[in-house]
Task: structure prediction
Amino acid sequence: MKRILALALIVTSLLSCKKGDNTAPETPSPRTLNVYTVDNENVSIFRQNLDGTAPKSLVAHQQDAGKNVFIGDVSANTAVTKIAYLLRKGEPGAYLTELHLAGADGSNDRVLKSYKQNNVYPIMVKIGNNGIIYYAYRDLGNGSYQLYSINENGTGETKISGVFNGISDITADGKYVVALSDLSNFVRLNYFDVTANGDVRNALYTDQSIPGLKQARISPDGKKLIALYLSYGIKCRIIDLATKKYTDVSITTGFGSDYYHYMSLAPDNDKIIIMAKGDSSSKSYIYSQTSGQITQFNNVNNGVYQGYIF
Result:
């Protein structure tokens, strides 16, 4: 009898193990997102909670008397273990532009690329999903926009083919760009394959109907274009690249005192963060495409011009 019971326990145990083998693993909880803000009065990058609380300084550079030093753009890798940013410093006539790579906590900050050319003006940086960093600058001498890629170890710098005026963003795989054409009485939104030459006739998508267009981004999954524009308040146009249909969203209504605006997109393909800077204020607005809710908070100080969610 004891032997029968022992065998029954063994069989039950084996069946239990077999059942466990067929059970799907639990889905890990999503990583906590944070807001990263750029204070260009003090040339600093802060990390804080999504409601603006608990700010922590990660990167800081010395500002000069003429306030010529500023951080042009910031990006993080998918795992948010690294951040890349563009820094411009120096004096008029002797500017220096640097591409930096650091740990997500600001540690091990190093310069990957340095331009000792006065006309180089930083525009955009993106850490790709392939160990490559993409960055763009504008040549203030001839007005052209230059787009490059470089390995995270600082080797393999490559100029990307295509001439894209007003480049605003690039996909993480480096295959598509969004650029704004500043024409005589409107700004046109263009979405290109990077192998195109920037001619609007080669655009995969174009829209010149957005009033007061300021900026455009490509969603992390590459399925949408998000445009920031001003029309009796701060607005976003969310464009589905598959259907070419769009939705306009009001972030604020009415004419505010803010005069500088900046937008970036969260890796969850849901949240949009917009900075609104005025003479005596700097605010963040976070819009959720899923819930339609808007979270608003004052930034750490009035010197914050740019904001990101990583």
